[in-house]
């Protein structure tokens, strides 16, 4: 029993007892969760299960970023919200659900969305970042800011019956989003759930797996998906794990001479780079 | 790449060896796929002689960047996969 | 647009619009969900996300079976319950959450748990069965009753950092649980979450995937995991899909001359067969 | 089978061919694993000469029932996996 100096109180020991008695996890890993913080960007299809499971697991401080309000057509996949929350700000609705699940954690909300001029500062305040956004400009912005702030990024995406999951900006050689995709796809190639549709449970699977990766990063237990991409075909029931390249020395965000820095990022034009305006109605 | 291959996600194909070439490359396999498998809008798949931005090319489940990109050799039984980055959430 | 005769009203069309516009799903698949029913046995770690996602997806009638009350040590993985529900019956707490998500569906609760003398009748009232239980005798009972009632069974399990998922009793040649495991493991080999511990998000991943399989079975869209077992090692981030045997002609539950029938099942001694008393605190 | 193999989940092993036998079988590989890899309580792994109830044996990700059970042939590079059925939830 490595129960010394873990800093957990009696209620925490009881609440998290099923994780604490797990040999491969234990009280020290639980204490790291309780001391840790995660920023979830997007309180939609991916952010819903990610926020619920991270709050339940006992992550000490959760930040939730969104700028939209709940609509009835969101709820088929955004299960953290309720019918009664239609019209309520998504970050507030999600935060309320997290607090109802676990009043012992701190939940902070950011109602303006992530922008180039607040991204690095906001991301620097958290240990692990979860990209639960729904559009290309925000995905590049999050990845760049994680490079600048040196924060590991759990990236998930879902559309139709397909999902993807990986960890960027982690460890010695983990790539960032730009290392993989230095050039943005043409705007016409970027399907969003609003336009193309999505089977509700698909972002549910990916968002839950994002919570898992965040737990592993914070607790130090298990192997994370750095340099591995999980691609899920939910219709076929196929799970595909692929090996990714290392970070690129030439990358303008995480390479040896980055041009995207704390000083330059706020004025980077993500809309022009991707040909799309940011939206965050995940 | 679902749309591009007529809603079939896994396509097994015998890519013919081109005469005069020693070894089939990913580049040649891609060009062949574009000309023989694509049912619509090939510009969503390739850009010039390489793949369009936002598509990850895999040879046997490994990022082609680790195998030599366009010049990566492919042999009988090898699997070349194209994965589009997704943005939805 | 195959919108004729689907029987969906205007609010349903709006609520499920993101699934309806999805080409591979569409309005007829949504209508089959709305007409369909799923019985979820266990409102714990697996049942929590399964119930949330099935309610959100619009399954017309949900049944929730459990006989325990919510405890604080459940909530790290049983995210359908709230702190305020500690002491409340799990089936009632889960049903309330489902109704708050979707008031247009019917949610029924069964507070006595599944027993040999009510299993076949209860299971016969639903189209698809989700095994979200947590012990060997209940798992054999559910599988047997699904054989007798001829209902497809989505079976999930989780312990520690490992999870498993498959579909039993489905199609021409799909096996049942007994086809795979005709003899029960010795009681000492059967770890339960209460005893061995479980990382909370692990049943979250499996339960969400159980909802996905149930959606596929009800809607007729996609390939289900009949004759395939998905084994997940969440610590390593490995997903393993294995090919299973066909149903056995000699199986005493689903074979050509079954000895477990509607007449004999109620008196079958599951505690003696498995060497364990049933519990259902999933 | 985590516990049984000293918390290592994937064990790569060179199972020696027994003299006088034509072809290594799953049965022989299991007996070898029990005698050489198990760190504790072999009775949790085997029962008699077969596997204990509740364990699924796979040869290259396929249920051994489809390959001939104990008599299934295994060759160099084949992967034999043991999966315990789980009951938790
Ligand atoms: Zn980079
Ligand atoms: Zn059977």
TrEMBL record, chains B, D:
<keyword id="KW-0963">Cytoplasm</keyword>
<comment type="similarity">
    <text>Belongs to the URM1 family.</text>
</comment>
<feature type="modified residue" description="1-thioglycine">
    <location>
        <position position="89"/>
    </location>
</feature>
<comment type="function">
    <text>Acts as a sulfur carrier required for 2-thiolation of mcm(5)S(2)U at tRNA wobble positions of cytosolic tRNA(Lys), tRNA(Glu) and tRNA(Gln). Serves as sulfur donor in tRNA 2-thiolation reaction by being thiocarboxylated (-COSH) at its C-terminus by MOCS3. The sulfur is then transferred to tRNA to form 2-thiolation of mcm(5)S(2)U. Also acts as a ubiquitin-like protein (UBL) that is covalently conjugated via an isopeptide bond to lysine residues of target proteins.</text>
</comment>
<dbReference type="InterPro" id="IPR015221">
    <property type="entry name" value="Urm1"/>
</dbReference>
<protein>
    <recommendedName>
        <fullName>Ubiquitin-related modifier 1 homolog</fullName>
    </recommendedName>
</protein>
<dbReference type="GO" id="GO:0032447">
    <property type="term" value="P:protein urmylation"/>
</dbReference>
<dbReference type="InterPro" id="IPR016155">
    <property type="entry name" value="Mopterin_synth/thiamin_S_b"/>
</dbReference>
<keyword id="KW-1017">Isopeptide bond</keyword>
<dbReference type="Pfam" id="PF09138">
    <property type="entry name" value="Urm1"/>
</dbReference>
<keyword id="KW-0833">Ubl conjugation pathway</keyword>
<keyword id="KW-0819">tRNA processing</keyword>
<dbReference type="GO" id="GO:0002098">
    <property type="term" value="P:tRNA wobble uridine modification"/>
</dbReference>
<feature type="cross-link" description="Glycyl lysine isopeptide (Gly-Lys) (interchain with K-? in acceptor proteins)">
    <location>
        <position position="89"/>
    </location>
</feature>
<dbReference type="GO" id="GO:0005829">
    <property type="term" value="C:cytosol"/>
</dbReference>
<comment type="pathway">
    <text>tRNA modification; 5-methoxycarbonylmethyl-2-thiouridine-tRNA biosynthesis.</text>
</comment>
<dbReference type="GO" id="GO:0034227">
    <property type="term" value="P:tRNA thio-modification"/>
</dbReference>
<dbReference type="InterPro" id="IPR012675">
    <property type="entry name" value="Beta-grasp_dom_sf"/>
</dbReference>
């Amino acid at each position: 029993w490595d129960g010394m100096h873990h800093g957990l109180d009696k209620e925490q020991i009881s609440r998290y007892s099923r994780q604490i008695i797990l040999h491969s996890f234990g009280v020290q890993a639980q204490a790291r969760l309780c001391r840790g913080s995660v920023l979830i960007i997007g309180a939609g299809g991916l952010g819903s299960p990610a926020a619920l499971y991270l709050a339940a697991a006992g992550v000490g401080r959760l930040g939730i970023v969104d700028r939209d309000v709940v609509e009835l057509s969101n709820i088929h996949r955004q299960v953290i919200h309720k019918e009664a929350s239609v019209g309520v700000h998504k970050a507030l609705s999600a935060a309320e659900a997290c607090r109802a699940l676990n009043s012992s954690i701190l939940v902070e909300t950011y109602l303006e969305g992530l922008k180039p001029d607040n991204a690095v500062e906001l991301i620097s305040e958290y240990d692990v970042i979860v990209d639960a956004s729904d559009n290309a400009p925000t995905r590049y912005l999050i990845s760049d800011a994680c490079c600048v702030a040196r924060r590991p990024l759990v990236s998930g995406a879902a559309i139709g019956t397909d999902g993807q999951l990986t960890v960027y900006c982690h460890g010695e050689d983990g790539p960032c989003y730009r290392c993989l995709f230095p050039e943005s796809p043409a705007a016409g190639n970027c399907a969003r759930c609003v336009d193309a549709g999505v089977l509700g449970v698909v972002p549910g699977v990916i968002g839950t797996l994002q919570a898992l990766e965040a737990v592993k990063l914070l607790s130090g237990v298990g192997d994370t998906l750095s340099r591995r991409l999980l691609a899920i075909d939910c219709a076929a029931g196929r799970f595909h794990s692929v090996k990714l390249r290392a970070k690129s020395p030439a990358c303008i965000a995480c390479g040896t001479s980055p041009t995207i820095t704390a000083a330059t990022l706020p004025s980077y034009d993500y809309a022009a780079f991707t040909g799309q305006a940011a939206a965050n109605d995940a | 790449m679902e749309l591009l291959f007529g809603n079939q996600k896994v396509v097994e194909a015998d890519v013919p060896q081109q005469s005069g070439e020693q070894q089939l490359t990913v580049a040649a396999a891609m060009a062949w796929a574009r000309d023989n498998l694509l049912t619509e809008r090939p510009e969503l798949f390739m850009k010039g002689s390489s793949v369009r931005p936002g598509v990850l090319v895999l040879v046997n489940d490994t990022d082609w960047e680790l195998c030599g990109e366009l010049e990566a050799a492919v042999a009988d039984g090898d699997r070349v996969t194209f994965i589009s980055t997704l943005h939805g959430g």
